[in-house]
Amino acid sequence: MAGFRTIDDMPALAGKAVLVRADLNVPVATGPDGVRTVTDATRLRAAVATIAALADAGAKVLVLSHFGRPKQRDTQNSLAPIAAALADVLGRPVVFIGDCVGEQAAAGVADLPAGGIAVLENTRFHAGEEANDPAFVAALAALGDYYVNDAFSAAHRAHASTEGLARVLPAYAGRNMAAELKALTAALGEPKRPVAAVIGGAKVSSKIDVLTNLVGQVDHLMIGGGMANTFLAARGISVGKSLCEHDLKDTALDIMARAATSGCTVHLPYDVVVAREFAANAPHRIANIHDIADDEMVLDIGPAAVEALGDALKTCATCVWNGPMGAFELVPFDAATVALARIAGALTQGGTLLTVAGGGDTVAALAHAGVTGEFSFISTAGGAFLEWMEGKPLPGVVALQT
Asked: CA 275 from chain center: how many Å?
C-alpha cells in the first residue's frame, strides 16, 4: 500500500478550517415523544482522537458525514441529535450547522472560533454527494483549508465527501483511518507468514470474491458458519436440512482448486453440532460430518474442529477474521466462535499472533466472546472491510495515497 499523510504531517493549524470526514452514521432510536437518541456511540468514540487533536491545535473543526439513505432533506435523517451525542462523547461543545454547503454553512463556519468544533448537516441531503459532483465538491471545499478523512467505513464509496475533497484540498488520514490502514497493511498487504483467514457467516454467495481473493493471499483458509455446509456438500457430504447453497457447489470446488494451486490449505470441520430446530438450547448433539441425519441441521462446528483450527493458528503469525463459526446468537451454538476467538486472543496477547478482524456480525461475535480487547485490531467497518478482503481498491483510500 502506497504511503499517505496523517494529521501529524499537517502544518500549523491555528485559525485554519479543517473539513473532517467522520462516520456519524450511528444507530438511533426514536422515542414516543419523537426525540431521536443515539443507541450505540462506538463510531462517535472512534472519531474523538482526530477531532480533539485538531481542535487542540487551534483549527476550526468541521465534521462532515452522511446519515441513512435520504433522497432529500428530512428531519429523520438530520445530524442534529448526533451532534449533541458527539458533544457528550467529546466532553466539549459541538455546534450544529444546518447545511453543509452554501450561505448557512459559510456563516456557521465564520462564527466558529479557533479550536471550535461543528457538525455540518447530512451530506446526502444533496444529490451531489453520492454523484461526486465537482460543483458540490467545490462548494464543500470552499469551507475549509484542509481535508482529513477519518471514515474508513465509508472509504469504499467514491462520494464527494469521501473521495472528491481529497482531490482538491491538501488531504490527510485521521487517527482512525491511519490505524485501519496500518492494521490492514500488516494483515494482508505486507503480512508476517504464515497467514490464516478465519471466514464464517451464513452464505458463500455473499463472500465469493472474498474467498477467491484470500486463497491466493493466505496460507490457511478456515471456513465455518453456514458457508461450511456448502463446501461440505460440494465434497459429496450430506448436510441434512442445514442452510446450504447447493447451487454453488461448483463455485466451492473452484475455490478449493484455486487454493490447491496456490498452496493454501482449506480447513473444513470434520465434526459439527447438529439440531432439529433452529432455536436457543434446542436438543443437539456432536456428529461426525458423515453422520448428519436428513432431518438435522448443522448449527456450529464441533469441538474437535475447533481444536484443530486452534492448533493451526498456533503455527501462524497473522490472522484475519471475518464472520462467526456458527449460529452464535443462540446458546449453545456460540461455543465454537467463543472458543476459537479466545484461542486467537490468547495467542495475540502472548505475542505470537497478529489478529485483525472486521465486517458485519464479526464485531458482535467477538464482543460476545469477550475478546475485543485481546485482538490486535477490530474494524467497525462493514462494506469497506469486505471490499478490502476482496482485494478491491477503496476510492477513499486511493485518494489519500501520496
From this structure: 31
Identify the residue whose cell numbers are 465538491. Answer: 137
Q: Select the more confidently predicted residue: 189 or 335.
A: 335
Q: For the packed helices 303-313 and 335-349, what is the interaxial angle rounded to 10 degrees?
A: 20
User: Using CA atoms, how far apart are residues 216 and 223, in angstroms rounded to an integer?
Assistant: 15
- pLDDT, mean of residues 213-240: 96
Q: Prior bond to 332 cis, omega within 30?
A: yes
Least Cα distance to 28 among 88, 106, 82 occurs for 82
**pLDDT at position 2, please?**
58
CATH of residue 349: 3.40.50.1260
Q: For residue 244, what is the DSSP state?
A: -
Quick one: 149 and 273 in the same domain? no
Read off the pLDDT of residues 138-182 as tens digits, 9 standing for 90 and up: 999 999 999 999 999 999 999 999 999 999 999 999 999 999 999
User: Among candidates 321, 387, 329, 322, which has minimal Cα distance to 348?
Assistant: 321
- Give just the sign of the alpha carbon dihedral 187, 301, 352, 378: positive
Dihedral-angle region of residue 249 (phi above 0 means left; psi in -120 to 50 means alpha; beta otherwise): alpha
Kind plus residue range of the DSSP H or E element containing 1: none
Of the candidates 38, 37, 65, 36, the residue with the CA atom closest to the CA atom of residue 50: 65
Within 13 A of 113's CA, how many CA atoms are on the CB side? 4
Q: Count of CB atoms within 10 A of residue 285's CB?
A: 13
Residue range 291-312, pLDDT digits in tens? 999 999 999 999 999 999 999 9
Asked whether residue 204 falls in the same domain as residue 69, the answer is no
User: What mean pLDDT value characterizes the chain?
Assistant: 95
C-alpha cell at 263: 498452496
Kindly state whether residues 72 and 157 are assigned to the same domain.
yes
Residues with catalytic annotation?
43, 203, 360, 383
3 state DSSP class of 148: strand
Element holding 158 (H helix, E strand): none
More confident of the two residues 35 and 160: 160
* pLDDT for position 402: 78
